[in-house]
Design a protein that fits this description.
Keywords: Signal. Helices cover 66% and strands 3% of the residues. It has 239 residues and is mostly helical. The protein folds into two domains: 61 residues, no CATH class; 159 residues, no CATH class. It has a two-stranded antiparallel ribbon. Strand 1 and strand 2 form a beta hairpin.
Length: 239
Protein backbone atom coordinates (compact mmCIF):
# COMPACT_ATOMS: atom_id res chain seq x y z
CA UNK A 1 0.00 0.00 0.00
CA UNK A 2 2.78 2.46 0.96
CA UNK A 3 4.73 1.53 -2.21
CA UNK A 4 1.67 2.16 -4.42
CA UNK A 5 1.01 5.48 -2.69
CA UNK A 6 4.63 6.56 -3.23
CA UNK A 7 4.48 5.69 -6.95
CA UNK A 8 1.17 7.52 -7.40
CA UNK A 9 2.51 10.62 -5.70
CA UNK A 10 5.53 10.64 -8.02
CA UNK A 11 3.23 10.27 -11.05
CA UNK A 12 0.96 13.08 -9.84
CA UNK A 13 3.93 15.37 -9.21
CA UNK A 14 5.53 14.50 -12.57
CA UNK A 15 2.26 15.08 -14.39
CA UNK A 16 1.83 18.51 -12.76
CA UNK A 17 5.36 19.54 -13.71
CA UNK A 18 4.90 18.30 -17.28
CA UNK A 19 1.69 20.31 -17.62
CA UNK A 20 3.47 23.45 -16.46
CA UNK A 21 6.33 22.96 -18.93
CA UNK A 22 3.90 22.25 -21.77
CA UNK A 23 1.91 25.43 -21.10
CA UNK A 24 5.01 27.56 -20.84
CA UNK A 25 6.57 26.22 -24.08
CA UNK A 26 3.38 26.80 -26.07
CA UNK A 27 2.75 30.27 -24.62
CA UNK A 28 3.16 33.24 -27.00
CA UNK A 29 4.76 35.28 -24.23
CA UNK A 30 8.52 34.94 -24.08
CA UNK A 31 9.91 33.98 -20.71
CA UNK A 32 13.52 34.18 -19.60
CA UNK A 33 15.21 30.98 -18.34
CA UNK A 34 15.32 32.17 -14.72
CA UNK A 35 11.64 33.19 -14.81
CA UNK A 36 10.74 29.82 -16.35
CA UNK A 37 12.49 27.89 -13.56
CA UNK A 38 10.86 30.04 -10.89
CA UNK A 39 7.36 29.55 -12.35
CA UNK A 40 7.91 25.82 -12.66
CA UNK A 41 8.96 25.52 -9.04
CA UNK A 42 6.01 27.58 -7.79
CA UNK A 43 3.44 25.60 -9.79
CA UNK A 44 4.85 22.28 -8.66
CA UNK A 45 4.84 23.49 -5.05
CA UNK A 46 1.21 24.68 -5.27
CA UNK A 47 0.04 21.42 -6.82
CA UNK A 48 1.60 18.98 -4.35
CA UNK A 49 3.31 20.42 -1.28
CA UNK A 50 0.16 21.60 0.52
CA UNK A 51 -1.88 18.49 -0.31
CA UNK A 52 -1.85 15.03 1.18
CA UNK A 53 -3.18 11.93 -0.57
CA UNK A 54 -4.23 8.44 0.41
CA UNK A 55 -5.19 5.37 -1.61
CA UNK A 56 -8.60 3.77 -1.00
CA UNK A 57 -9.65 0.86 -3.21
CA UNK A 58 -7.00 1.80 -5.82
CA UNK A 59 -8.27 5.41 -5.95
CA UNK A 60 -6.17 8.43 -5.03
CA UNK A 61 -8.12 10.57 -2.55
CA UNK A 62 -7.09 13.97 -1.19
CA UNK A 63 -7.19 14.03 2.61
CA UNK A 64 -9.26 16.65 4.49
CA UNK A 65 -8.56 17.80 8.04
CA UNK A 66 -11.58 17.34 10.33
CA UNK A 67 -12.23 18.18 13.98
CA UNK A 68 -11.17 15.43 16.35
CA UNK A 69 -14.06 13.29 17.63
CA UNK A 70 -13.64 10.99 20.62
CA UNK A 71 -16.05 8.04 20.41
CA UNK A 72 -16.84 6.29 23.68
CA UNK A 73 -17.21 2.54 23.26
CA UNK A 74 -19.45 0.24 25.33
CA UNK A 75 -18.29 -0.54 28.84
CA UNK A 76 -16.54 -3.91 29.08
CA UNK A 77 -18.05 -5.82 31.98
CA UNK A 78 -15.97 -8.39 33.86
CA UNK A 79 -18.93 -9.94 35.66
CA UNK A 80 -22.71 -9.97 35.90
CA UNK A 81 -22.40 -7.86 39.06
CA UNK A 82 -20.54 -5.12 37.18
CA UNK A 83 -23.14 -5.15 34.41
CA UNK A 84 -26.02 -4.90 36.90
CA UNK A 85 -24.28 -2.13 38.81
CA UNK A 86 -23.69 -0.15 35.61
CA UNK A 87 -27.28 -0.48 34.39
CA UNK A 88 -28.71 0.65 37.75
CA UNK A 89 -26.31 3.60 37.83
CA UNK A 90 -27.27 4.47 34.26
CA UNK A 91 -30.98 4.55 35.08
CA UNK A 92 -30.41 6.84 38.08
CA UNK A 93 -27.99 9.11 36.20
CA UNK A 94 -30.46 9.56 33.35
CA UNK A 95 -33.16 10.43 35.87
CA UNK A 96 -31.25 13.20 37.68
CA UNK A 97 -29.28 14.66 34.75
CA UNK A 98 -32.05 17.10 33.66
CA UNK A 99 -32.16 18.53 37.21
CA UNK A 100 -28.39 19.12 37.20
CA UNK A 101 -28.58 20.87 33.83
CA UNK A 102 -31.55 22.99 34.86
CA UNK A 103 -29.98 24.00 38.17
CA UNK A 104 -26.67 24.97 36.57
CA UNK A 105 -28.51 27.06 33.97
CA UNK A 106 -30.48 28.87 36.69
CA UNK A 107 -27.33 29.60 38.66
CA UNK A 108 -25.56 30.87 35.55
CA UNK A 109 -28.44 33.22 34.82
CA UNK A 110 -28.45 34.35 38.45
CA UNK A 111 -24.75 35.19 38.45
CA UNK A 112 -24.94 36.99 35.11
CA UNK A 113 -27.78 39.21 36.30
CA UNK A 114 -26.23 39.84 39.70
CA UNK A 115 -23.10 41.13 37.97
CA UNK A 116 -25.26 43.80 36.34
CA UNK A 117 -26.91 44.92 39.60
CA UNK A 118 -24.81 47.46 41.49
CA UNK A 119 -27.10 48.07 44.49
CA UNK A 120 -26.41 45.64 47.35
CA UNK A 121 -30.04 45.72 48.51
CA UNK A 122 -31.33 45.02 45.01
CA UNK A 123 -28.87 42.17 44.60
CA UNK A 124 -30.10 40.65 47.87
CA UNK A 125 -33.73 41.08 46.83
CA UNK A 126 -33.13 39.50 43.42
CA UNK A 127 -31.22 36.58 44.99
CA UNK A 128 -34.17 35.95 47.30
CA UNK A 129 -36.57 35.87 44.35
CA UNK A 130 -34.43 33.41 42.39
CA UNK A 131 -33.84 31.32 45.54
CA UNK A 132 -37.59 30.94 46.11
CA UNK A 133 -38.13 30.20 42.42
CA UNK A 134 -35.51 27.44 42.41
CA UNK A 135 -36.92 25.92 45.61
CA UNK A 136 -40.48 25.99 44.27
CA UNK A 137 -39.33 24.48 40.98
CA UNK A 138 -37.24 21.66 42.45
CA UNK A 139 -38.49 20.84 45.95
CA UNK A 140 -41.38 18.54 45.06
CA UNK A 141 -39.39 16.72 42.39
CA UNK A 142 -36.31 16.31 44.58
CA UNK A 143 -38.40 14.76 47.33
CA UNK A 144 -39.05 11.86 44.98
CA UNK A 145 -35.36 11.06 44.53
CA UNK A 146 -33.81 8.04 46.21
CA UNK A 147 -30.68 8.38 48.39
CA UNK A 148 -28.45 7.22 45.55
CA UNK A 149 -30.07 9.58 43.06
CA UNK A 150 -29.65 12.45 45.51
CA UNK A 151 -25.92 11.77 45.82
CA UNK A 152 -25.51 11.46 42.04
CA UNK A 153 -27.28 14.79 41.64
CA UNK A 154 -24.88 16.42 44.10
CA UNK A 155 -21.93 15.10 42.07
CA UNK A 156 -23.44 16.27 38.79
CA UNK A 157 -24.10 19.70 40.26
CA UNK A 158 -20.38 19.95 40.91
CA UNK A 159 -19.65 18.77 37.36
CA UNK A 160 -21.88 21.43 35.87
CA UNK A 161 -21.07 24.36 38.17
CA UNK A 162 -17.58 23.66 39.50
CA UNK A 163 -18.97 24.32 42.99
CA UNK A 164 -20.23 21.94 45.65
CA UNK A 165 -23.92 22.00 46.51
CA UNK A 166 -22.92 22.99 50.06
CA UNK A 167 -21.19 26.15 48.77
CA UNK A 168 -24.10 26.93 46.45
CA UNK A 169 -26.53 26.79 49.38
CA UNK A 170 -24.07 28.81 51.48
CA UNK A 171 -23.94 31.56 48.84
CA UNK A 172 -27.71 31.65 48.35
CA UNK A 173 -28.58 31.50 52.04
CA UNK A 174 -25.99 31.45 54.80
CA UNK A 175 -23.18 29.30 56.15
CA UNK A 176 -25.32 28.19 59.10
CA UNK A 177 -28.18 27.10 56.83
CA UNK A 178 -25.73 25.23 54.59
CA UNK A 179 -24.30 23.47 57.66
CA UNK A 180 -27.73 22.22 58.66
CA UNK A 181 -28.53 21.20 55.10
CA UNK A 182 -25.36 19.14 55.03
CA UNK A 183 -26.06 17.63 58.47
CA UNK A 184 -29.59 16.64 57.43
CA UNK A 185 -28.33 15.15 54.17
CA UNK A 186 -25.67 13.17 56.04
CA UNK A 187 -28.43 11.33 57.92
CA UNK A 188 -29.36 9.84 54.54
CA UNK A 189 -25.73 9.15 53.56
CA UNK A 190 -25.65 12.18 51.27
CA UNK A 191 -22.86 14.75 51.48
CA UNK A 192 -23.53 18.15 49.92
CA UNK A 193 -19.76 18.69 49.87
CA UNK A 194 -19.25 15.84 47.41
CA UNK A 195 -17.19 16.64 44.30
CA UNK A 196 -16.83 14.85 40.97
CA UNK A 197 -13.50 13.28 39.90
CA UNK A 198 -13.72 10.47 37.28
CA UNK A 199 -9.93 10.16 37.24
CA UNK A 200 -9.85 9.29 40.95
CA UNK A 201 -13.22 7.73 41.86
CA UNK A 202 -14.52 4.67 39.99
CA UNK A 203 -18.21 5.52 40.45
CA UNK A 204 -17.57 9.00 39.07
CA UNK A 205 -15.89 7.42 36.05
CA UNK A 206 -18.92 5.17 35.47
CA UNK A 207 -21.23 8.19 35.66
CA UNK A 208 -19.07 10.12 33.19
CA UNK A 209 -18.95 7.11 30.86
CA UNK A 210 -22.75 6.83 31.04
CA UNK A 211 -23.16 10.53 30.25
CA UNK A 212 -20.82 10.47 27.27
CA UNK A 213 -22.38 7.33 25.82
CA UNK A 214 -25.85 8.87 26.13
CA UNK A 215 -24.68 12.18 24.63
CA UNK A 216 -23.21 10.22 21.75
CA UNK A 217 -26.52 8.44 21.12
CA UNK A 218 -28.57 11.65 21.61
CA UNK A 219 -30.40 10.11 24.55
CA UNK A 220 -29.45 12.98 26.88
CA UNK A 221 -29.03 16.68 26.14
CA UNK A 222 -25.31 17.38 26.06
CA UNK A 223 -23.84 20.06 28.28
CA UNK A 224 -20.12 20.63 28.70
CA UNK A 225 -18.74 20.32 32.25
CA UNK A 226 -17.60 23.39 34.18
CA UNK A 227 -14.61 21.43 35.44
CA UNK A 228 -11.71 19.91 33.53
CA UNK A 229 -12.07 16.15 33.06
CA UNK A 230 -9.24 14.02 31.67
CA UNK A 231 -11.43 11.21 30.39
CA UNK A 232 -8.63 9.34 28.63
CA UNK A 233 -6.71 9.20 31.89
CA UNK A 234 -9.81 7.84 33.63
CA UNK A 235 -10.30 5.18 30.94
CA UNK A 236 -6.69 4.04 31.30
CA UNK A 237 -7.07 3.74 35.06
CA UNK A 238 -10.44 2.04 35.33
CA UNK A 239 -10.56 -0.03 32.12
Amino acid sequence: MKKNLFILLILVTGFAQAQVRHQLVNSKTSVKPKELKKEQDTSALDSTEHKQFMVIDDKVMETIDLDEVFLVGPYKFKSRYERRRYLILQKKTRHVWPYAVMASERLTELNERLNKIESKSKRKKYTKIVQNYIEDEFTEELKKLTKTEGQILVKLMYRQTGTTTFDIVKDLKSGWRAFWYNTTASLFNISLKEEFHPEEVEEDYLIEHILRRNFQKDQLNKQEPAIEIDFLKAVEKWQ
